[in-house]
Amino acid sequence: MWPLLCKNSVGIVIVSLTHKKILLGVTGGIAAYKAAELCRLLVKGGAEVRVAMTDAAQRFVAPLTFQALSGKPVLASLWDSASGDGMEHIHLSRDADLILVAPASADFLARLAQGRADDLLSTLCLARTCGLAVAPAMNREMWAAAPTQRNLEQLRADGVSVLGPAAGEQACGETGLGRMLEPAEILAALPMCAGGLAGKRILITAGPTFEPIDPVRGLTNLSSGKMGYAIAQAAAEAGAAVCLVSGPTCLATPAGVRRIDVRSAADMRGAVLAELPSDAFIAVAAVADYRVDHAATQKIKKSGGMTLHLVPNPDILAEVAALPDAPFCVGFAAETERLAEHAESKRLKKKLPLLVGNLAQDTLGQDTAELVLFDDRGRHPLPRADKLTQARRLIDHLADLLH
After folding, report:
1. Residue 360 CA to chain centroid, in angstroms?
2. Does residue 9 have a pLDDT over 50?
3. Are 15 and 6 spatial neighbours (Cβ–Cβ below 8 Å)?
4. Is 229 helix (H, G, I), strand (E, B) or coil?
5. Model confidence over 195-241: pLDDT tens digits?
6. Of 30, 104, 161, 294, whose CA is between 20 and 30 Å from 113?
7. What is the pTM of this model?
8. Going by CATH, does the domain composed of 4-189 fall within 3.30.70.100?
9. Could you report the per-residue pLDDT of 161-194, keeping only the tens digit for each?
């Protein structure tokens, strides 16, 4: 079987699924029509595909469509078992390398997060011993709703790969996040396909730093760490050995990632230098530019004012990039205006092969981001999407440059 070339947002990804067994779950939603093309691409890539459909999914696309594309009967009911012992929901999940649910409706994500097992597809997901990936598809308000976001956080904590969604025009006529990724993008983002960083050591910084003024006060910033943690997850999915040096955050460590907690810029610098050498260094952390010259050892009492003497913090990225045996360095530039001008200037000044630019007011603390990649080949805009999707796009681009 020849490898399949899938074009995503930043280039061509070679996907080989030979001998892989994938259970494709289809739930109810207009995006179910895209699942037919996804099934075709999976088969074309060499995978053996079994399709399981919910009752709602069958109202959008006929099971016969997937039977023709996969070459196998469609699984539709928990009570219709092809095996003699009535344990098809166990046998199928044991035989699969991956369960992929696309589209994954808001209702199905909720049931998955709760551990429900009241139909064939939800039972397969609960009884699985293989990986699970979901490609959400829903109205933008349903996606942004607090219950949906809580469910997604639970699923990610449970090790489920969430692919997308993308932003754009929706079937209801509204525009925003909630569109299912295109089939080629899903294929390129599958955890089992992402091997572009296999054998590589990737060092990443994330989150803010905290520079103490006294034992109870300090200087910090609005960085949530979400982008850095998403990049760590994407790098681990791509097969890398990932070390994440993190400032203070409330985020869970991504699966397969080794995490080192730090507080100040000086702490972060020490941890980064101790972890070198690495194949790539991705400096995502919002490191404070300044710190107090001498932090007070006791709480400073109110006395009508406070005067602080600030001194520059070390530029960790510049220091690492200037090393004789420097790793491939990736910088981040959070600007508030003239993004292209400031980002490219920073990249050239620090002699970085790759820099990621964004407007701080549109990204810091948020769940989505619109990014622009700057390298020697020019500018590569990444349209707005959730941060994990952007992280996977960035890792694809990084893997291409490293190779």
Report:
1. 19
2. no
3. yes
4. helix
5. 578 778 999 999 999 999 999 899 998 889 999 999 998 888 787 88
6. 30
7. 0.59
8. no
9. 888 888 777 777 777 788 898 998 888 777 655 5
What pLDDT is attached to residue 193? Answer: 56
Contact 313, 362 (CB under 8 A): no
| Domain residue ranges of the chain, discontinuous segments joined by + | 4-189, 201-402
Both structure tokens of 142: 């349903």
Distances from the Cα of 253 to the Cαs of 54, 206, 229, 246, 260, in angstroms? 33, 11, 7, 10, 10
What residues are labeled active site?
Answer: 172
Strand blocks (E) in 45-139: 48-53, 98-104, 131-136
Q: Would you state the CATH architecture of domain 201-402?
A: 3-Layer(aba) Sandwich (3.40)
- Tokens representing 350? 């620090």
Q: What single-letter amino acid sits at 144?
A: A
List all residues 6 or more positions away from 205 whose beta carbon is below 8 Å from its beta carbon. Answer: 228, 244, 245, 246, 247, 268, 272, 282, 283, 284, 285, 287, 316
